[in-house]
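Final report, results section. Input specification for complex C-07:
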Amino acid sequence: MDTWSRPRQAQLVGAHKHYGKVQALRGVDLELRGGELLALLGPNGAGKTTAIALLLGLMRPDRGSVSLFGRDPQDIVARRNIGVMLQDASLPPTLKVGELLELTASYYPQPRAVAESAGMAGVADLLQRRYATLSGGQQRRVQFALALCGNPRLLFLDEPTVGMDIEARQKLWAAIRRLVADGCGVVLTTHYLEEAEALADRVCVMAHGRVISEGSVDALRARVAMKRVRCSSALDVATVGAWPEVVEARMDGGRLWMSTRQAEALLRRLLAADAAVADLEVQAADLAEAFTELTHAADADAGREAELEAA
Amino acid sequence: MMETIATPAMPGRRVLGAFAAEARSELVRYLREPAFLLPIMLFPAAFYLMFGILLGSHGVGDGAARYLLASYSTFGVMAPGLFGFGVSLALERDNGLLTLKRALPMPPGAYLLGKLLMALCVAAMVGALLLSMAIGLAGVPLTATQVATLLATDAFGVLPFCALGLLVGTWVKGQGAPGLLNLVYLPMAFLSGLWFPLSMMPALLRQLAPVWPSYHLNQLALAAVGLDDGSRLPHALVLAGFTLACLLLAARRLRRHG
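Structure output:
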């Protein structure tokens, strides 16, 4: 199914929000659709948490509009469609996992059975344990179980895999993929770019209160035309670093490593300068590099803006 | 195209179920927390055992044991309101639990009502413990009506202190709240004559006593055990007014500052 035929579940239109003098959002448009996973990326302070808070009805925008299933998110009827996993919520330490699931499920009209939610989140063996006795990773899995126990159509997951080991993370990813395949919409904020690469249908990069890039993972990579070139060569870092095509050069495990926006031109120059080049590799930038470049560009813009405002 | 499938309706029975689940969870989680429950139960009980029963038995008849049953139960009832309600609200505003609950479709009011019922139950437990000590250890003769009236006074007497705790909880976030509430709790108990009878205090403090809500609750508790013949209505009205004022102020602060 292509993106635009999926039903729209939630929307921010031209949302502005400030805290005191800090402008957290400067006109953000965002659409969430059923059966689609949107990854919201961006450095700390980019406005991700504020955008989520508006969609959850935790605060109201100064300007612009928010809707959740066609309603005001502060309307409880709208929120009966959503599941929520927040980054830092301390749950009651003395309650057992099963009790927490029953309590949260009681808020919803047609929740999943406790055993089903627990099974999907991989906490079926923890139901009788008190929350305080669980490890950090187990607590995150319980919070994930709480997010999906209401049988929601849209899930908000804020940094869901922080504190999890690799195996637990893979299991959680698999569970998220199953939910999305069943038509559930998911909004994921994460610092782990591989998480966005592994799961996201759409990636939305925020910086300084704006959406600076939105599209598929491939589109984001393509937007940043950075390539990595690696090879074994007699040339040294200083020499290649001075070439106009090279953005950055260093040694990486005994091999020369370069990043470039003009891979073809760089390769012609490289092969001309050193006929003995071996082990040549050219790779597209991964999401992390794309992301870094995008946010650096936005930083520079914001810096110029601040200068203009000051002048 | 906005998603058109209607949200499944929430039957009234399930909404009530959510209120019940919230109240049950609040109660269970605090009953499992000795660090919360023990001081609240043991401080008034230990004071009563020392001053009301062991030292008081040398006095005239059951006077001291009866008098201090009322004042220590007032003292005991203040704590679940101030700490069970106020401190837990301040902590949960700080640690993200309240934010999560506001994002979830929890019925509005279920959170505060759950905490209120928890405080009410703990207050009744404190009252029941002191009553059983008065009857079993000190042999204070109490009629069934007196027992029932004191228990009801203790249970509902927690409400003004819940409201005060709520208000303080909106001023101070997190770990600062217990300290501030102790600064309210202990002086207020002393100044209302809960530790020493007001008749033993300087005239100024005696005249100031009606300022404190705990003074009025104590008058109701004294009346419940047959030690005050005056009208109860003014005290009940003062407590109701105090509760309302705290609630309104707290609601205003929560609306402005979240």
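Chain B is about 75% helix and 0% strand. The radius of gyration of chain B is 20 Å. This concludes the modelling results for the funded period.
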